[in-house]
Specification:
Blueprint lengths: L6 H18 L3 H7 L4 H9 L18 H14 L1 H21 L2 H12 L5 E4 L15 E5 L2 E12 L6 E7 L9 E7 L5 E6 L10 E12 L3 E2 L5 H37 L1 E2 L2 E2 L4 H29 L5 H26 L10 H10 L7 H13 L1
Parallel strand pairs: 1-4
Antiparallel strand pairs: 2-3, 3-7, 4-5, 5-8, 6-7, 9-10
The chain binds acetoacetyl-coenzyme A (CAA).
Acetoacetyl-coenzyme A binds next to helix 5, strand 3, helix 7 and helix 11.
């Protein structure tokens, strides 16, 4: 067992940290306030290889392992969780499944541009009445000759407005329940595909969350990924990996807030000494550091299992459950360490606290992670 990062991992961490500090930090408060998508920043993330980190280099990807991806997600999330969720969805909810299960024609057509951030992707599973209960898909895709007719509504779709390629989960045979669900590649601009309004959110306000409406959208048969009926397994497997990305995001939000609180506690004086010299603050810092380290170990373990080709569904659910809880705890405490300054935008921790909450909700709520973990234990 080896707990040290390799030189490659350290280089990824340094590059992501440098990018986050120089390109994401300037303007992050304004983008949050104005709910502005980090368009230019995402383009640069693509140029630097962050949008397709694990993709095979033959499709313009970085050919890196999942640990590298988790490390980069942590560093970028320390500063801008709106940019990192865009990165996470593109890497693990869109590119992973396209590369693993797509046909060669689908891979060649879509992956190179997605992997370089020239275009971005979205993953469309949630519906107005199918969130945690993901088997209850109402969106339908009816076969009609050489194409399907897609009808339905998707909700809470990250990258919804800015994506060019959408992986859409839909029922092709409702009589078969979740075994009648399939997955399709849908392109922006196709007739009948309408992008709904952008959601006005508590946190990750720069990220681009929309509902999507499909009315008699013609989807060519060659845009189905895998066989009919494969869609639910595709979605679950995709989310197993996606949850490593969100766990790393939660870890980064927590670590970012902790670093700010630590620095502030050394500068701010009260009762004649820096507040870091008061035990009340020291205990907070100790709890934060311990929780973050534990979350990091769970994230790395899940990523490592994936890289070893072993089952990681259980580990990724544990990592997401715990890291998102840590993100909430640590960001609340970071605001507390800052006192009144923590409650204003300028000091960043209030944003991180708002951003933390979503990590307990998307890509499976904490309650869903407990279902996945409990089923793994009892199987
Ligand atoms: N990995 C692989 N397969 C899985 C799985 C997993 N984690 N969980 C379930 N499955 C398989 C089961 O083995 C079963 O397959 P078989 O029928 O072949 O045996 C099938 O899926 C159905 O499973 P269940 O009978 O367990 O179904 P269920 O309805 O009782 O519960 C659930 C399934 C785990 C609760 C699932 O619905 C779930 O994960 N829900 C949460 C969905 C979710 O994470 N949504 C997030 C939306 S995406 C998002 O947020 C993206 C974004 O934009 C940021």
């Amino acid at each position: 067992m080896n707990f040290q990062l390799t030189e490659e991992h350290q280089a990824v961490r340094d590059a992501a940290r440098e990018f986050a500090q120089s390109e994401l930090l300037p303007g992050v408060i304004e983008r949050d306030t104005e709910a502005k998508f980090p368009y230019e920043q995402v383009k640069k993330m693509g140029e630097l290889g962050f949008m397709g980190m694990m993709v095979d280099p033959k499709y313009n990807g970085g050919g890196m392992d999942t640990i590298s991806y988790a490390i980069a997600m942590e560093e970028i999330s320390k500063v801008d969780a709106s940019a990192s969720v865009c990165m996470s969805v593109n890497n693990s909810l869109v590119l992973w499944g396209l590369e693993k299960y797509g046909t060669e024609a689908q891979r060649e057509k879509y992956i190179p541009k997605l992997a370089t951030g020239e275009i971005i992707g979205a993953f469309c599973l949630s519906e107005p009445e199918a969130g945690s209960d993901a088997t209850s898909q109402r969106t339908t895709a009816e076969l009609n000759g050489d194409h399907y007719i897609l009808n339905g509504t998707k909700n809470w779709i990250t990258n919804g407005g800015n994506a060019s390629v959408y992986l859409v989960i839909a029922q092709t045979d409702p009589s078969k329940g979740h075994k009648g669900i399939s997955v399709f590649i849908v392109e922006k601009g196709w007739d009948g595909f309408v992008i709904g309004k952008k959601e006005d959110k508590l946190g990750i306000r720069g990220s681009d969350t929309h509902s999507l409406m499909f009315t008699d959208v013609k989807v060519p048969v060659e845009n189905r990924i895998g066989e009919e009926g494969f869609g639910f397994t595709f979605a679950m497997e995709t989310l197993n990996g996606g949850r490593i990305g969100i766990a790393a995001q939660a870890l980064g939000i927590a670590a970012g807030a902790y670093e700010l609180a630590l620095a502030y506690s050394k500068e701010r004086k009260a009762f004649g000494k820096p507040i870091s010299q008061h035990q009340a603050i020291q205990f907070k810092l100790a709890d934060m550091a311990t929780q973050i380290e534990a979350a990091r170990l769970l994230v790395y373990k899940a990523a490592w299992l994936k890289d070893q080709g072993e089952d990681y569904a259980h580990a990724s659910a544990m990592a997401k459950l715990y890291a998102s809880e840590v993100a909430m705890n640590v960001t609340v405490e970071a605001v507390q360490v800052h006192g009144g300054y923590g409650y204003v935008k300028e000091y960043h921790v209030e944003r991180l606290m708002r951003d933390a909450k979503i990590t307990q909700i998307y890509e499976g709520t904490s309650e869903i992670q407990k279902i996945v973990i409990a089923r793994g234990i009892l199987r």
